[in-house]
From TrEMBL:
Keyword GTP-binding found: no
Enzyme Commission numbers on file: 5.2.1.8
Domain PPIase cyclophilin-type: 24-197
Species annotation: Tetraparma gracilis
Official protein name in the record: peptidylprolyl isomerase
InterPro entries cross-referenced by the UniProt entry: Cyclophilin-like_dom_sf (IPR029000), Cyclophilin-type_PPIase_dom (IPR002130), E_coli_cyclophilin_A-like (IPR044665)
Database matches in PROSITE patterns: CSA_PPIASE_2 (PS50072)
């Protein structure tokens, strides 16, 4: 995966989003003209996944993109207009989509390991049920979307988990070990519940990097 961007350390990304047709965000009865969401990405446990996201943010890939899924379980975006289902650009020659998408491998860091495991779920690796270093155990946990039946099919689509301790208990949900968690929302998580399909990301930028930054 030498040709793929990777994140050393951690990075903070801030997004500003607005509702379709200029409507306000309603957070517990208080209206806001826009949503401000701050995320911290962890390159220590998900260097390729987090690095891919940081690279796309810096390219302006998500700017102007609409929210594409909001079903009470996750809020998801990242599928560009056109035939491609992800970012089309340079990457690993062995990981390319049908429309030239830059694909990234499934990256899972099992707690206690010294490095991530690539290209396989923990069930398929014979370690089903083992905890991951970054679990989907919090509201606003960030995951990388992929084809359910193809491990190395992620490109640019990501999601925020609308965590519920009863529906998605930590260590016993359908995400841990099957999808990489690469960061968490640290501020503005309340806006996620009111993000709907058609709402727009008006800006996305990297505001802080600790521990090395992005390298390719």
């Amino acid at each position: 995966y030498a040709a793929l961007p990777k994140l050393q350390g951690r990075a903070t990304v801030e997004m500003v989003m607005r509702k379709d047709k200029g409507a306000p965000f309603d957070i517990e009865g208080v209206n806001f003209p826009e949503a401000n969401v701050k995320m911290v990405l962890d390159g220590y446990t998900a260097p390729v996944t987090a690095g891919n996201f940081v690279d796309l943010v810096q390219r302006g890939f998500y700017t102007g993109m609409k929210i594409q899924r909001s079903d009470g379980f996750v809020v998801q975006t990242g599928d560009p207009d056109g035939d491609a289902i992800g970012f089309v650009g340079e990457g690993s020659p062995k990981l390319k989509g049908k429309s030239g998408e830059r694909l990234i491998p499934l990256e899972i860091f099992v707690k206690g390991d010294k490095a991530p495991t690539y290209g396989v779920t923990i069930e398929d690796d014979g370690r089903g049920g083992q905890p991951t270093a970054m679990p989907f155990n919090a509201y606003g946990a960030m995951g990388w979307a992929r084809d359910e039946y193809e491990a190395d099919s992620g490109s640019s689509q990501f999601f925020w988990l609308l965590f519920d301790s009863d529906l998605t208990p930590a260590g016993k949900n359908v995400l841990d070990g099957r999808y990489p968690c690469f960061g968490y929302v640290t501020e503005g998580e309340g806006f996620l519940r009111d993000l709907k399909e058609g709402d727009e990301i008006v800006s996305a930028k990297v505001t802080k990097v600790v521990g090395g930054g992005l390298y390719k």
